[in-house]
Amino acid sequence: MLCSLLEPAAVFADVGCDHGYCTEYMLKNSLCSRAIFSDISRGSLAKAERLLSPYIREGRAEGRLGDGLRCAPGADEVLIAGMGGREIVGILSDENYGYLPEKFLFQPMHDAELLRRYLVGAGAFLERDFTFRDGKFYDVVKGRRLREGEPPQDYSSAEYAFGRENLRERPKAFLERTEKQLREVEGYLSVPGLGERSREELLVRKKKLEGVLKNAAE
Ligand SMILES: C[S@@+](CC[C@H](N)C(=O)[O-])C[C@H]1O[C@@H](n2cnc3c(N)ncnc32)[C@H](O)[C@@H]1O
């Protein structure tokens, strides 16, 4: 799924590459002139270096060990997949090395709302913003920098929380996850001795999830 969402790029960066599969896809399909793949873990980077060794020898790919965008200054497309939304925001907003890439594809494992809010506030245009299922459920946020004179997107609270595309297009995976979340909340609500504050919070969450399923999210 992630590979199918990647755009052609001059310099593609795969931050937190682990095995390096997405970088391999970009290079194999000649979708970028150059690729930088990086990881904070030496062991992960070594896996990608093994997989990508033919491209490294050709001078089309370079592996770098280190934190976030420090390893990828000036890439025009950045992929960050498999980290928390908070970690992704931390990488983009790092005061020394952070930047909003011209094109990006992010797959936050959690805190997708935080990431959407940061991106829209930082001048990004979110082109795709949906949930898919591959065994587990995954959120994906694909976008680009706003063009000159282009107005910022007006995301509602529900769109930040659940994803604009999810609410408009209602993909199957998103509805299945919402149903699962609703069952979980109902399960917590039936636990004996639940504190009043927890009950109130869970009831608010339940109402929101029911609103999504009735196609009436606020
Ligand atoms: C769950 S793996 C995901 C790998 C790959 N992106 C994918 O989606 O299949 C997350 C990877 O991010 C790396 N990582 C975590 N924090 C990082 C950071 N701040 N900078 C670079 N890499 C990081 C981890 O070492 C790990 O290899």
Structure description:
This protein is of the alpha/beta class and 218 residues long. The chain folds into 2 domains: 2-152, Rossmann fold; 174-213, no CATH class. 43% of the residues lie in helices and 25% in strands. It is built from 10 helices and 7 strands. A 7-stranded mixed sheet has the order 3-2-1-4-5-7-6, sandwiched between helices. Helix 5 runs parallel beside helix 6 (112-121) and helix 9 (172-189) packs antiparallel against helix 10. The longest helix is centred in the C-terminal third of the chain and has 18 residues, at 172-189. The radius of gyration is 19 Å and the shape is elongated. It starts with a helix and ends in a 5-residue tail after the last helix. The structure holds S-adenosylmethionine. The site of S-adenosylmethionine has 16 residues, from strand 2, strand 4 and helix 5. S-adenosylmethionine is lined by residues 15-18, 38-41, 44, 67-68, 81-83, 87, 91.
List keywords for this structure.
218 residues; binds S-adenosylmethionine; Rossmann fold; seven-stranded mixed β-sheet; 10 helices; elongated; alpha/beta
Determine Rg (CA atoms, Å). 19 Å
Individual helix count: 10
Tally of discrete structural domains: 2
Hetero groups in this structure are: S-adenosylmethionine
Proportion of residues in helical segments: 40-55%
CATH level-two architecture of the largest domain: 3-Layer(aba) Sandwich
First-residue to last-residue Cα separation = 29 Å
**CATH homologous superfamily placement of the largest domain:** Vaccinia Virus protein VP39
- Share of residues in strands: 15-25%
Give average pLDDT, whole number: 97
Oligomer: single chain
Please state how the strands of the largest beta sheet are arranged side by side: 3-2-1-4-5-7-6
- Helix and strand sequence: HEHEHHEEHEHEEHHHH
The CATH topology of the largest domain: Rossmann fold
Tell me the overall shape.
elongated
The CATH first-level class of the largest domain comes to Alpha Beta
